[in-house]
Each structure stands twice: as C-alpha cells, then as structure tokens.
Write a structure and sequence with these properties.
mainly alpha, two-stranded parallel sheet, two-stranded antiparallel ribbon, 4 strands, 49% helix, elongated
Length: 129
Amino acid sequence: MRCLVADSQYSSEAFRDQVKDLGGEPVIPYPKNQMKGEKVLRVDRKFRTHGPTRHRRLHRRRSAVERTVSRLKTHFGLNQLRTRGLRNVMVHVFLCLITMLVTALSSIMLGHADMMRSPVRLFKLTGGM
C-alpha cells in the first residue's frame, strides 16, 4: 500500500479521507488535542515520535527527505529559482540532484566520506579542482 507521510499541519479528517479515497494510507501525526486516549502517531516537543511502530518508522523517513531538500536549497541553488516553466524547473532540479550525487561520490572516492554532505568543504579541501 502506498503511504503519504506529512507533518501534523496536514492533520485533518478531510485530508485523511482524501488520501484513503485515492488508495493511500495517511501517516500524519495527530496534534495533542485530537484523538485523545487512542494509540495514534504523535510528535512531542522534542520531535520524538510516539505511536504505532510502523507509522513511527515511516515518519522517520520524512526527516531524511527534509534534510535533502534543505541541502539542495542551501548548497545547490534551489532556494531562489530564476527559471520559469515546469520543464525548466525540472531540468534545474535534476541537475542539482546530479551535482549532489557527484559531490558525494567524489568525496568517497577521494577518501573523505565524512565530507560527502558538504560541497563547500570538499571544494576547499581539493583546492577547487
């Protein structure tokens, strides 16, 4: 079954019902004031997840996606797009993803796997190859 993982801002019965109608399973944490006393997915103030094990595991993957998007915005120019049109934006995003993967592969091949997430540090280390 396909799952839709989102944060608690998407927590509404209408949204959950739409996901179910489309054949998906919503993995969305409930806020404290909803579904009291039931075992549902929740996220506390320290961003720890509580609830069913399967939902906790699926929700944990969301943070990896968030980190990747943040890295793409910070280091690879997706923060301020200057391209217009869906096709051009898609090409720009794909080029950024390819660049991110090449950076990771280069750092591993150079023996600096600890720097695969920071293209700036790797660039300085290699002397701007």
